[in-house]
Sequence to fold (489 residues):
Amino acid sequence: MPVGLRIVESRLGLRTAYSRMPFRYGVVTVRVAPIATLEVTIETERGERSRGYAADFLAYRWFDKRPHKSLLENVTDLLRAIRLAVTACQSSPAYCSAFELWHRSLLESAGQGPVQDLNDLTTSFGASMPERAVIDALGRLLRLPMAELASADALGIDLGRLDPDLDGVDVCGVFPKQPLDWLWVRHTVGLLDPITAGDRPANAAVSDGLPETLEDYLRVDALRFLKVKITGRLDEDLARLTSIAALLSRSPSPCTVSLDGNEQYRDLGAFAELVDRLQVAPELRPFSRAILFIEQPLDRSVALSPETAPLLARISEYKPVIIDEADGTLDAFRRAMALGYRGVSHKNCKGVYKSMMNLARARRGNARLGTERYFLSAEDLTNLPVVPLQADLAAVALLGIPHVERNGHHYFFGLDHLTREEQAAALVRHSDLYAPLGQSAVLRIQDGGLALASVQVPGMGFATPPDMGSMLPPERWIDQHGADINPGA
Fold:
């Protein structure tokens, strides 16, 4: 039965992670990561109280790429969206299910967002923070991992509230019978990442004991999956993809690839030219065959336009195309499916219940067609340990997605952004996920993947609560670190 609850207290803290190497996606290069952590205290109808947590990298220039917004304004917008959603939750006087509380806050945030110049992805992110924190708090109270919370109906999930086509769907029947205990890592190859040692100037070596080039990662982590980002500049992309293809031809294990367009195209005709070249160039044909799907080549402003359908159908004959940044509203994947898109990304920052709904849509669409046409992918937004990373892994394990993009361990050094006490606790409570290295700890990737047994703990995947006392209130963080975000990146 759903548990009736409300949020009675909340607080928000920020900490900083500095990258070990620059991460370029789309139009921005990340060197500093502000990580927001939300703590909520819930109270049930029986008067029981519990604390829960959610955390995420405040990804400037991903949620909102409008050029009139500065990078720091992106960060303050995301903080405002969190506060807007939390206020909506706390202003609800009645006890309700965790699902209902999220849905109310999402609707309130979506209504208030345009007034505050916040776009759909930003308000969805804001609502996702109390969503996840409440799931964590309820799991800790009931001593149930996230997967068991969902299967016990403690969250009160009602997919028909989100999409009438899913009315009456039993959400438990959407998930695998058991959450996954292993995930393959789909390693990000960012736009600035060196492919081999020859691509990196000698004075640019990090030399911190971790892999640096793609060649290093293939050898050390025994990778089986890659996510390769492209720029939208044909000659530059072809040269880089040729270099990657040459490296993969020498790799002892075959790699499957996703190709991330990062909204770099305004029309599919230009992207179709890249697709054609991938298929005809002899040196790129093996790489082309290894592509599993293509992620969001079109800018979100045109990605769901009906005019995309004819070319999308042609490209989809080559490889499935999915949406990512265009997934800003609850109906986005349904509209995308009608145009010919085959999938949608899961990211906790877009909403966990939303991904459950999208999985149900994919399963229902496949059942109607009698074939596995629609799917969810699992993508990273620089999820760092412990809370963002492990909450994401817990959700992906529940959704049954077999491989997940991971990039935080590549661009940031392990658990360096955490306190020594938090690092030590992670090594003890999640030894399958982390290994000691020097004075810190790093993600433990074995045979190209991650063991997930330790994320099946009460709450949303992490055993030890974060140290809120080590964080700064948002206003103080902006005063002290706001200038570190490089506006010229």
Remarks:
- The mean pLDDT is 95.
- Residues 8 and 389 are 26 Å apart (CA to CA).
- The first strand starts at residue 5 and ends at 25.
- The domain at 172-464 is CATH 3.20.20.120 (TIM Barrel).
